[in-house]
Write a structure and sequence with these properties.
With about 700 residues, the chain is of the alpha/beta class. It has 25 helices and twelve strands.
Length: about 700
C-alpha cells in the first residue's frame, strides 16, 4: 500500500516541481530510491505470504526490513525537502507552496516515528491521524488554484504579447507599404520633370534658335522642382537628427506672408481658384526664419490648391493673440473634400497616404510631416480640422519674440509661375490622325504635343476622368496617357476604354514612372497596347506610335473585304473572333435582319448600338477604314450575291429583297463592287435558274 502511496507522491512531486526539467539528477536519485522501496515492498509481501504457510522465516529478517523501510521513508522525506529548496533557489515560485505543504507532513511523520521508537505515546492516540495529509492537501489545493490562476494570467499575457507582436508586424508591414508608396511616388516625382528636362534638351539641340530661351526656362523650372524635392527629404532627415539650425531675423512677418501668398496666384489661376489673404494686423515685427516659414506656408497652400476643385477658394488668415501679441496664428483653409475623421490624427505621419490623396496627384508623403517638424523646431504648434460644411483648415501657431537682429525680409523666393509651353486643345479639321494626350503634368503634355503636332491633330486631358470623357466623344486614333494621375489613374481609364465598344479599338500607350515588371503587367492586363517608362526617348515613342498605326492599317485591310463576316467563328484566325470582329458582326447581323427595308440605315444602327452618329462614324472609320454607308451597301450586295448562287429568285426580286428600290441601280452597284454583272453570277449556276 505504501509503495503505491510513495509512487503517486513521486509522480505528483515530479510534475509539480518539473523535476525532469529543473532537477534531472534529483529526479534520477528519487527514481532509484523509489525502485528500491518497491522491490523491498515486494519482498516484504512475499515473506508475509510464506510465513503464513509452512515456511519458517527468522523474525530478525522482518526487523531488518522494517529498519530499511524507515530509512527509505526518511530518504523520501529528505529528498522531497531538498527538491523543494533547490527549486526555490532556481526561482521556481510554486516550490514554496510545495515546501510548505511537505513541511507539515514531515513534522507529523517525525513525531509519529519518534513515538513508535520510544514506545511512549506523548499525545492521545490517533490525534495526528489524517491531519498531516489533510493540511498538505489543503495547502496543495490553494497552491494549485494559485498556479492555475497564474497559468491563466500567463496565457492572457502570452495572448497580449502575441497581439503586441502582431501589432508590431502589422505596423512593420504598414511602414513597409508606406515606404513602398513613398519610393513609388518619389520616383514619379523625379521621372516627370526628368522627362521634360531630357526632352526639351533634345529640342534645344535640334532647334537651338527657336527653343533656346523658352526651353532653358522650362529646364530651370523643372530642375528647381527636383531640387525642392531633394531638399525636403534631406531637411526631414536633418530635423530628426536635430542638426537643423534656426536662422532668426526680426522683420515684418505680415509683409513676408503676403508675398508668399501672392507667389501662388499664378498656380491658383490655372484652376480658377480664388486665393485670398486676410490679416487683423497690417504689420507685425517679430523673429522668424524666412526659409522655414516659406517651407511651411508653401506646403500648406500647395496642398490646399491641389485638393480644391476648379473655381474653388483658398483662404489664408493671419491672427494674433494677446495685447501686445504673444502668438501669431496662420490658418490655411480650402473648400475641397476635407479629411476623413479617422485620418485626422495620422495626417502628419510620414509616408501617410489618406483616402483623399489616393484620388489625387501622387506626392512624396513627406510634405506635411516636414511641415510639422519645422513648426516644432520653431517652438510652435500645428493642427488640422474639418470645416462645418466642406473643406479643411490647417492652423500654425508660433510664439512672437523680438530678440533677433532687425533685417530686410528676403524677396527672392521660388515662385510657382509656370513656364510651360502653351497647350492648344483645339482639334482642327485637317485630315490628320487624332492623338489624345492624357497627362496631369502640363510640361510633359506640352512636350509630347510639341513632338506630335506637325503630324497629328492633338487633344489634351489632365486626368483619367476627363480623358475617358474626351475619348468617348472624339474617338481619337491614338491615346498617350500617364498612369499616376488625379481622380482616375491611367490603368482605370484604359480598362474602361477597352471594355467600351465605342473606344475598344483605340491603341493606348501608357507613359509612367512605374517601370517595375508588375506595373507593366498590370498595364498590359488592362488592355494597354504599349508601355513606356519615364523619362522616355522620343524616337522610341515615334516607333511605338508608327507600329500601332501600322497595326491599325492591318486591321482595316482585314475589314476592307467583308467576306469574313459570312464565315463561321471557327473559320476565323485561330478560331477566335476578335472584339472588333464581334462589333462588325453585330452590325451585320442587325442589318441582315432588316435587309429588305430600303429605308433602314445609319440612324437605325445608331439606335441599336446606343451611339451617336458621329461616334459610330469615327469608330467604324477607325476600325475598317471605310464609311458606315459603304458598309451597309456592301452587306446588301454580298447578301445578293449569295442569293444569286443559292436561290431561283430573279434579279429584280433579289434586288428588292436586299433593300434596293431600283433593279437598275442594284445592277450598277453590283457590277461596281464585284466587277461582274448579276446575270453573269446567275449564268454560272444554270441548275438554279432553270
Amino acid at each position: 500500500m505504501w509503495a503505491f502511496y510513495f509512487l503517486f507522491f513521486y509522480l505528483f512531486s515530479r510534475s509539480y516541481l518539473k523535476l525532469h526539467f529543473l532537477l534531472t539528477r534529483v529526479d534520477t536519485i528519487w527514481k532509484i530510491g523509489l525502485s528500491i522501496y518497491i522491490i523491498l515492498a515486494i519482498i516484504k509481501v512475499t515473506m508475509f505470504y510464506l510465513a503464513s504457510g509452512l515456511v519458517f522465516i527468522n523474525a530478525e529478517i522482518f526487523t531488518y526490513i522494517d529498519t530499511l523501510d524507515y530509512i527509505l521513508l526518511f530518504f523520501f522525506l529528505f529528498i522531497s525537502i531538498l527538491a523543494g529548496i533547490m527549486c526555490i533557489r532556481k526561482g521556481y515560485k510554486p516550490a514554496k507552496i510545495y515546501l510548505t505543504a511537505i513541511s507539515f507532513y514531515v513534522v507529523f511523520t517525525f513525531i509519529t516515528i519518534f513515538q513508535r521508537f520510544i514506545g511512549v505515546a506523548l499525545l492521545p492516540a490517533n490525534v495526528f491521524t489524517g491531519i498531516d495529509e489533510l493540511i498538505m492537501v489543503l495547502i496543495f489545493s490553494v497552491g494549485t488554484a494559485r498556479q492555475i490562476k497564474e497559468l491563466e494570467q500567463e496565457k492572457i499575457n502570452a495572448e497580449l504579447a502575441r497581439e503586441r507582436e502582431h501589432a508590431k508586424v502589422e505596423k512593420a508591414i504598414a511602414l513597409d507599404n508606406f515606404k513602398t508608396n513613398f519610393f513609388t511616388n518619389i520616383t514619379h516625382e523625379f521621372r516627370t520633370p526628368l522627362t521634360v528636362i531630357m526632352g526639351i534638351a533634345d529640342l534645344i539641340k535640334e532647334q537651338p534658335t527657336s527653343w533656346y530661351t523658352k526651353g532653358t526656362q522650362i529646364i530651370k523650372q523643372n530642375g528647381q522642382r527636383l531640387m525642392t524635392l531633394i531638399n525636403q527629404i534631406l531637411d526631414l532627415s536633418k530635423l530628426e537628427a536635430g542638426s537643423v539650425p534656426v536662422n532668426y531675423i526680426q522683420g515684418d512677418v505680415i509683409q513676408y506672408l503676403n508675398y508668399l501668398v501672392e507667389s501662388f496666384q499664378s498656380l491658383a489661376s490655372q484652376k480658377e481658384i480664388l486665393l485670398l489673404f486676410k490679416t487683423d494686423h497690417q504689420h507685425l515685427m517679430m523673429d522668424f526664419d524666412p526659409d522655414k516659414i516659406s517651407t511651411i506656408v508653401s506646403n500648406l497652400i500647395g496642398n490646399a490648391i491641389k485638393f480644391t476643385p476648379d473655381k474653388g477658394k483658398v483662404l489664408i488668415q493671419v491672427k494674433t493673440k494677446g495685447n501686445p501679441p504673444s502668438r501669431v496664428e496662420i490658418e490655411v483653409s480650402d473648400n475641397g473634400p476635407g479629411i476623413p475623421e479617422n485620418e485626422l490624427d495620422r495626417i502628419f505621419d510620414r509616408f501617410f497616404e489618406g483616402t483623399v490623396l489616393k484620388n489625387q496627384e501622387a506626392g512624396t508623403g513627406v510634405g506635411l510631416s516636414l511641415t510639422r517638424e519645422i513648426v516644432h523646431l520653431l517652438k510652435g504648434e500645428i493642427s488640422v480640422k474639418n470645416l462645418p460644411e466642406y473643406g479643411a483648415a490647417f492652423t500654425v501657431s508660433l510664439p512672437v519674440t523680438k530678440n533677433a537682429v532687425i533685417a530686410e525680409v528676403p524677396q527672392e523666393i521660388n515662385s510657382e509661375e509656370q513656364a510651360a509651353i502653351k497647350i492648344d486643345d483645339q482639334v482642327d479639321s485637317q485630315n490628320k490622325p487624332t492623338v489624345l494626350i492624357v497627362e496631369d503634368s502640363k510640361d510633359v503634355a506640352a512636350y509630347i504635343l510639341t513632338l506630335l503636332k506637325d503630324q497629328y491633330v492633338i487633344a489634351c486631358a489632365e486626368n483619367g476622368t476627363e480623358g475617358l470623357r474626351l475619348a468617348q466623344n472624339i474617338i481619337p486614333d491614338l491615346i498617350i496617357s500617364d498612369v499616376m494621375m488625379p481622380i482616375m489613374n491611367g490603368f482605370e481609364m484604359t480598362k474602361n476604354l477597352k471594355t467600351d465598344r465605342r473606344t475598344s479599338h483605340i491603341p493606348i500607350i501608357l507613359l509612367t514612372a512605374k517601370a517595375d515588371k508588375s506595373s507593366r503587367l498590370e498595364g498590359l492586363e488592362t488592355g494597354a497596347d504599349a508601355y513606356l517608362s519615364k523619362p522616355f526617348d522620343k524616337n522610341e515613342l515615334f516607333i511605338r506610335i508608327n507600329k500601332l498605326i501600322a497595326l491599325r492599317d492591318t486591321l482595316q485591310n482585314r475589314y476592307r473585304d467583308l467576306a469574313f463576316i459570312f464565315q463561321s467563328e471557327n473559320d476565323g484566325p485561330n478560331g477566335h473572333v476578335k472584339f472588333e470582329d464581334a462589333f462588325v458582326k453585330d452590325l451585320q447581323t442587325h442589318l441582315e435582319e432588316n435587309i429588305s427595308n430600303p429605308d433602314f440605315g445609319i440612324v437605325d444602327l445608331c439606335k441599336f448600338l446606343g451611339l451617336s452618329r458621329a461616334q459610330l462614324y469615327r469608330k467604324f472609320k477607325a476600325v475598317t477604314g471605310q464609311s458606315i454607308g459603304d458598309f451597309i451597301r456592301k452587306v446588301r450586295l454580298h447578301r445578293a450575291r449569295l442569293l444569286l448562287s443559292s436561290t431561283n429568285l430573279n434579279i429584280s426580286q433579289i434586288a428588292f429583297k436586299v433593300g434596293f428600290k431600283n433593279p437598275t441601280s442594284f445592277s450598277r452597284s453590283f457590277t461596281s463592287e464585284f466587277g461582274v454583272k448579276p446575270s453573269q453570277i446567275r449564268s454560272k449556276h444554270p441548275d438554279i435558274s432553270s
